[in-house]
Structures are given as C-alpha cells and as structure tokens.
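Narrative of activities, Objective 1.

The group set out to show that a structural description can be obtained from nothing but a protein's sequence at a throughput compatible with the screening campaign. Below is one input-output pair from the validation batch, recorded exactly as produced.
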Amino acid sequence: MMDRPTRILIVDDDPKILGLLSDMVSSLQHEVETAEDGFEAMAKVGLDIDLILLDVNMPGMDGFEVARSIRKQYLANELPIIMVTGMATREDRIGAVNAGANDFVAKPFDLTEIRVRIKSLLGMKAAHDALRRHKDQLEDVVRRRTQALRTALDDVVEAQRRLRAANLETIQRLVAAAEYNDLGSAAHIQRMSQFSALIAKRLQLSPQRIELIHQASPMHDIGKIGIPHEILLKPGKLNRREWQHIKRHPTIGAKILQKSTSQLLRLGEIIALTHHEKWDGSGYPKGLRGDEIPVEGRISAIADVFDALTSKRPYKEAFSNDMAFQVLWDGRGKHFDPELVDLFVGSVDGIVEIQNVFLSQETAQETISKGFPLAQSTY
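Output recorded for this entry:
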C-alpha cells in the first residue's frame, strides 16, 4: 500500500460527469483532482498523480492529444490512463491504445467497473513505484513540493488560455479588417461562423473539429483585403474586369494564410481558397467538383451565402429566411453539397436562435451609439 492516499486526476469538460466521477472515485477512498480541459490536465499531471480518468471528447485539446502529451513524460506503468469513452469499434480502441491509454471505462459506467479497473492499474503502478516511494519517505518534502506546484498552477493554466485567446483575437482583428473594407459587420462574421459550426455539429464531426471550423470559417473572405475598395462597394453590376478582380480574393486569402504551423490558420487557408467552389464544378478558383472540395469549404459556402442573403447591405434589402432557404434549395446539387443543404435547412430552430442572439446585440449596440444607456438586465 502507498504511504499516502492514491491521487486520481479526473478530466472532463462536462461539470455533471466531472462531479459524478469525482463522487464515485472519492467513495473508493482515493483523493481526487479535477481538470475541466486538456490544458489544466497537463498542468496538474505533476501533482503526484497516480492515475488519470480521461474523457475522449473535449473541445480544444481532446483526450487523445492529452494522452499523447502525457506519454512523452510518463510511461504507461508510471502513470496509468483510463479513457472514459463511448467508443465501441475495435479500430477506435486500438487508436486510443496507440495514444497511450491503458484501459477503458465505457459510458454509461458504474462504480464496480471503475473500482475493478482502477484497482488493477494501481496495483501495476504500485509495483513499479516501490523503489521511488522507498526513497521518498519524507512527507513534508512531498507536501512542500506539491504546495509549491499548486501555487503556480493557476498562472500556468491562465497563461495558456491567454495565449490561445490572444491568437484568436489577432485572427479576428485581421478578419475584421477585411470585412471593414467590404462594409461588412462583426455580426456577419460571428453569425456566419456560428452557422458553420451548426452544420458541422449536425454532420456529427468531432468537438475539436467543430471548434476549429467555428474559429477558422470567419477567415473565408480575408483575401478581400487585396481587392480595390471601389469594386467591393460598387452598387451596380460588375463588369468583366471587375469580376475577375473579385474572383482573385480566394487565392489572395490562401496566400496570406499559407505555410502556417498553426492548425487553425491551415484550416483558414483551406476555407479561404475553397468557399467559392461549387458542387457541380462551376465554381472558382480551381473548378473543384463534389467531394474534391474540402468539407470545411462546402460548409462555409452555405453559411456565408445564407447570411449574405438574410443581411441588409447598401445595395440590397435582406431576404427572409424562407426566401434564402429557397435559394439554397435551388442550388442543391449544383452550387451546394446536397447533404449539407438538407442538414442546414433542417436546423431552423438553431438558425433562428443564432439570428436572435446577434439581433439583440446589434440592437443593444445601436442603443449605446445613440446615447441611451442599456438596462442592467442586458448584461
């Protein structure tokens, strides 16, 4: 037996599941540490953790990525990992093992299964750690080391989150510069990204991929920075020369974002380059057809067109949702991926909810600009 209670780190972004697992593990007489995302989990691994219960599906940094990062520091018998997962296929489980998992707890889980699997892996770890525990008998040293690390954890986790937020803000400001040149609004960027995430969710992509699409899709028109102002704002029909200028913006956007080491910017490059390709091959700049077009480009095309149709611009009035749906439906299998059109048009409640949120924000902003203070309830 260990000289101290075993310490188990539970990682899950769902507060309800995190609380349930914490109660279960505590009832087995183990100390519990919790983390709400992968960044916090990586920071807390150094707190003399004996075993990790790790959720697979988490936004930002999923369970596979966390496990792979931990295995760069600890062997499987030094720090066992149990994946909390709903995966059922042999391929999925092999992938989890390759990422560094020792075992699995399937959802829905029960106390008996958790107890058996934890006991087995802790027994393995106890044998491996016998020499280390023998050398580390001074509990006051261990406590001081742990306490010193605890005091630094908040700063480490917050620094990671601030860095991610700063990166996203930089991208958002660059996107806003492109939209400003086109007299677009921040609300258009946000609505379009929310619509893209809605389609990705209906397509049942992974949480991490949905988040990437949400953050990368606003970069679709970043190439408009390179288009002359007078062409973007021309109220009438564009002539052939002007239209050729407009058609350059996907290529310009891709060049702005190319060769990045950031996964987010690489996806932004794909979306910028392909969001004007069409399902039937009549789009630009490469004339890609069907599944040749990356799914992120196909998703962004629908979200962008729908929001453009339903938004008021200096040269047009806003379409109703029904009118915009009809345009999408008419372009089904021609301009747009038919499956994605079906998913989007079938998500009316989610679409209206997104529109209402940003309508409220725009109304609030208009009230402020006219000098009228907002009521306290709006915050």
